[in-house]
Amino acid sequence: MNGTKIRWGILGCGRIARKFASDLLLVTDAELIAAASRNKETLTLFAKDFPCKHLHNSYEELVANEAVDVIYIATPHSHHHEHTLLCLDHNKAVLCEKAFAINSRQAREMVDTARQKKVFLMEALWTKFLPHYKKLQELLQQEVLGELKSVLVNFGFKTSGNSPQRLLDPSLGGGTLLDIGIYNVFITTSVLGKPDYIEAMMTAASTGVDEQIAVLFKYNNGAMAQLFSSFVTNLPIEAEINGTEGCITLTSRFYEPSSTIQLSKQIPYEREIIPVERESGLGYQYEIRHVNQCLNKGLTESPVMTHADTLLLMELLDTIRMKAGIKYPADLS
Ligand SMILES: NC(=O)c1ccc[n+]([C@@H]2O[C@H](COP(=O)([O-])OP(=O)(O)OC[C@H]3O[C@@H](n4cnc5c(N)ncnc54)[C@H](OP(=O)(O)O)[C@@H]3O)[C@@H](O)[C@H]2O)c1
């Protein structure tokens, strides 16, 4: 690191890369210095909106750029394994988009490589860094809901001609589970922990990937969770956490920054809208600041989004896929 600003490079200049780049501008100790795209025109358009010193026509060129401290991987899930290993091979710190990989075998290899090389690697599960998520954790620690009994969570939107092609393409890790269902699994396990039993059923799109999936978690302590994701209907993207004393609702859209949390207590019945302070911006700046802090401290693993968190998430996604019958080409290699 150069001691002042952390110098970021972006690998892949698609939709999320643009959102991330706009929030990077909000972080005072971060500088976007490089971007790489396989496509010249995409790169030119990206650089017009987000000027940076180094423009690379290949990912290989970006990872070889000595001026770059950390690389944000913004390619489809199917390519996270390959692109993370490419960065780590060049000793570049990595913030890799979710889903971290296609399966837990790939994820373990990525984590093992980062550990062997002593290079920073974190999954970009941005929700974990948002103020309303932190507030939720605080409330749960205060046991405001009593004994936790259930989580009910939905995430659905209707895809259209404008949606990224990757969403339904099996070779790019398409399907709802890895794209949006992952947030359902994340929020549920953040609240209830690792489930003891999992059931799952899906309906397939014409490409074979899940266009809808229903997942059930059951816990030995009596808690349950119901997780549903869809690419064929718009759903309220809400998470409801129920306990013996009340309910917390993370209102739509629960995975994005929110300025409120809704708390309903049962006896006496009262509903409270708890304000949460949030900055302007899309919300990616929180994870960016966290990565900067980790790098400034010389850490190779985030203490917030740990490697164990990522591996657990990937293992749960594997189990859900196995139960629902979702397979990807990468599972065979
Ligand atoms: N955290 C969030 O809020 C959030 C939101 C949306 C998406 N995501 C995640 O970010 C990742 C990218 O999603 P996106 O919506 O940005 O996708 P996208 O718009 O399709 O962009 C993906 C980019 O990856 C690059 N790429 C490299 N190999 C590719 C291939 N074989 N096929 C297609 N693209 C390829 C391309 O960039 P170049 O042509 O420039 O090389 C492409 O523009 C996914 O893993 C997704 O889950 C996260």
Strand content: 15-25%
Q: For the residues shown, what is the average pLDDT?
A: 96
Order of strands across the widest beta sheet?
8-9-10-7-11-12-13-14
Order of helices and strands: EHEHEHEHEHEHEHEEEEEEEHHH
Indicate the CATH class of the largest domain.
Answer: Alpha Beta
Oligomeric grouping of the chains: single chain
Rg from alpha-carbon coordinates:
20 Å
According to CATH, the homologous superfamily of the largest domain is: Dihydrodipicolinate Reductase, domain 2
Counted up, domains total: 2
Poorly predicted regions? none
Distance between the termini: 36 Å
Helix content: 25-40%
> Which kinds of small molecule does this entry bind, naming each only once?
NADP nicotinamide-adenine-dinucleotide phosphate
Described by the principal axes of the CA atoms, the overall outline is globular
> What's the tally of helices?
10
Please tally the β strands and state the result.
14
Label the structural class.
alpha/beta
The CATH architecture of the largest domain can be named as 2-Layer Sandwich
CATH topology of the largest domain: Dihydrodipicolinate Reductase, domain 2
